[in-house]
Amino acid sequence: MRPQNPHFHLIEKTIPVITLSRILPRTINTMTKSVDGNKTQAAKIIGIDRVSLWRKLQRFEKKGFDIS
Q: Quick one: which of 2, 28, 31, 38 has the most CB atoms within 10 Å?
């Protein structure tokens, strides 16, 4: 649903939209590398459980993101 801002069409054309689906893989990758690959520790810092992190990593790999 679009906001009721009459100038929304101008905002939409001038500001690039960065979605969570684009930020999340990079964030998780950076966080995992910062804790030397410890996925349990990375999950705790991010605020999700280890299994959720594992599922996200699997999903990102299927979409072609380099998660190493």
A: 28
